[in-house]
Amino acid sequence: MARRSSSSSSGAWRYLNPAYYLKRPKRLALLFFVFVAATFAFWDRQSLVREYESEISRLEDDINRLHDQLRKAGVHVDENPSNARKDLVEIDPVNNERREKVKEAMLHAWNSYVKYAWGMDELQPQSKNGINSFGGLGATLVDSLDTLYIMGLKDEFQKARDWVAESLDFDKDYDASVFETTIRVVGGLLSAYDLSGDKVFLEKAKDITDRLLPAWETTSGIPYNRINLAHGRAHNPGWTNGDSILADSGTEQLEFIALSQRTGDPKYQQKAENVITQLQKIYPSDGLLPIYINPHSGTASYSTITFGAMGDSFYEYLLKVWIQGNKTEHVKHYRQMWETSMEGLISLTKKTTPSNYHYICEKNGGSLSDKMDELACFAPGMLALGASGYGPEKSEQIMNLAKELARTCYNFYQTTPTKLAGENYFFHAGQDMSVGTSWNILRPETVESLMYLWRLTGNKTYQDWGWDIFQAFEKNSRIESGYVGLRDVNTGEKDNMMQSFFLAETLKYLYLLFSPPSVISFDEWVFNTEAHPLRIVPIHDNKGIGTPARPFGPLGRKQGKPE
Q1: Structure confidence at residue 92 (pLDDT)
Q2: What is the helix (H) or strand (E) element at residue 111, kind and residue range?
Q3: Angle, to 10 degrees, between the axis of helix 445-457 and the axis of helix 392-414?
Q4: Kind and range of the H or E run holding 369
Q5: What sign results for the dihedral spanned by CA atoms 71, 74, 75, 79?
Q6: Which burial class, exposed, middle or buried, applies to 186 when counting CB atoms under 10 A from its CB (0-12, 13-18, 19+)?
Q7: Catalytic center at which residues (predicted)?
Q8: Which helix (H) or strand (E) holds 351?
């Protein structure tokens, strides 16, 4: 055995003896070839590794330089590439297909507006003409800017941007609704600015807001609700008997605070926040204010309490200003007021028989009315958004109420022949719900709440419900020249108006319902009541003024009465 080992060893060693190869030139040549090939392969591999490492380093340097440039420009950059991979994982084929269908619907609505009503406030699709229902401010165009941007419709956005820069003029002898102009025009322009960084939008937002400011020149600081844009004369509509409307007076805070942050001028924020200061003085223990407020005395007038028309967005903004303000001590009173009001909301909540649908009553004096507007279907989303600010037990209670109210709102749609909701509903013992006012004007509130609930719970049922509603719009409201509302959800009779909020809100919320939650993340953006996302910015001082980071007569929007 030892010999075999010794023999084997000596046999191996001979290949290391140069004399072995000198006697065998062919083997020497082969060895040389193998040696040269191995050497080249080694150095070639090392070269490839160096080139790869050099390319990675170069790309990292480029990215770092780009990040530095973006930061200097005030642009927020997410430096964690895993977020991009997360977005890819979150996109599933069903949602992708649904989102593309919604995007196509937006293109159909937009192209119809461009063809038949370019530059006017709203399109009348059946007669194929435009109408200036807001004084000729290009309401549909301005309302659509951020939707076009979010959906990646770059050419359409650029065309709209050029119209804003060249043709949008606010010097009009027209008595505008302060509320509608703020949420649609100021909100739309600020959102377009936050998304694109194009200063033309900020300049226009400042121009129109400066024209609205005289409305706040009242004894109490509670604003008048209408103002002449050319002459600055402010007043209230005759049908309110001189009173200001709660929602109209308490739904400018998000936009005005945002404008002060972006311009560095505190006057807008001061005007809007003074309204809340005045309302705090008369705030009731249940947090429920009547819809009429006297602008001279600052006191509430005897009138309806509702989370529907003329009340709704006041409560919404209490929560959202707290979010916009980074939930700091400076805005703590907004949250406290909102929580008080949510206890009031709970006190207005009842259940139907036999299906146990939860609904929010209206209140007149000491009695409750078993009526709920579709407008109040924003409440499930608001409750879901605010639930996390409570402790665990209360948070669960609020979220459960949000879910129950969303089920009711979804069934506002499902219980009609067209599967589209009426304007309001009445509730009777043993009968669940029945349509009151039977028109549908393409409102967004239910799909808004479904979007919030899906993002905050992860339950895809809300996506399926939203898809059902979208399909009902496609079946009943889509025509060759745009989208129309229904005069009657029972018969399907069509009207002749494509509301601007259909493009601003309804289609945007549906698109986001089928998009990853990182698209307009709740951590970075807060939506105004017209679905215009405003970027949440840091607060640098106790007045909340900061510099924003930037990335990458008609039926009123919130009213059930003619303007």
Answers
A1: 85
A2: helix 93-117
A3: 140
A4: strand 367-369
A5: positive
A6: buried
A7: 180, 312, 423, 445
A8: strand 349-351
DSSP secondary structure of 119-168: TSSEEETTTTEEE-TTSSS-HHHHHHHHHHHHTT-HHHHHHHHHHHHHH-
- Choice among 180, 243, 248, 316 that is catalytic: 180
How far is the C-alpha of 530 from the C-alpha of 144, rounded, in Å?
11
Residue among 255, 316, 423, 488 flagged as catalytic: 423
Closest C-alpha to 122, from 111, 131, 110: 131
329 among known catalytic residues: no
Marked catalytic residue, from 255, 312, 432, 530: 312
Exactly one of 243, 362, 404, 445 is catalytic; name it: 445
- Beta strands at 432-435 and 424-428: parallel, antiparallel or unpaired: antiparallel
* Active site annotation includes 312: yes
Residues comprising the binding site?
529
In this prediction, residue 543 has a pLDDT band, given cuts at 50, 70 and 90, of very low
Could you confirm whether 173 is annotated as catalytic? no
Left if phi > 0, otherwise alpha if psi is -120 to 50, otherwise beta: which for 221? Answer: left
Select from 395, 383, 400 the least CA-distant residue to 307: 383
Could you give the CA distance from residue 240 to residue 238 in angstroms, rounded to a whole number?
5
The yes-or-no answer on residue 423 being catalytic is: yes
3-state secondary structure of 395: helix
Whole-angstrom Cα distance, residue 162 to residue 200? Answer: 9
Residue corresponding to tokens 């003619």? 562
Q: Assess whether pLDDT exceeds 50 at residue 557.
A: no
Question: Annotated binding site for Ca(2+), which residues?
Answer: 529
What backbone phi and psi angles, to 5 degrees, belong to 529? -75, -5
Instruction: Tell me the two tokens of residue 475.
Output: 């079946």
pLDDT digits (tens, 9 = 90+) for 381-434: 999 999 999 999 999 999 999 999 999 999 999 999 999 999 999 999 899 999
For residue 436 the two structure tokens come to: 């009151």
For the entire predicted model, the pTM comes to: 0.83
Task: Give the residue among 134, 130, 122 at the shortest CA–CA distance from 174.
Answer: 134
Alpha carbons 375 and 528: distance in angstroms, whole number: 15
The CA-atom distances, in angstroms, between 422 and each of 254, 381, 416, 512 are 29, 19, 8, 24
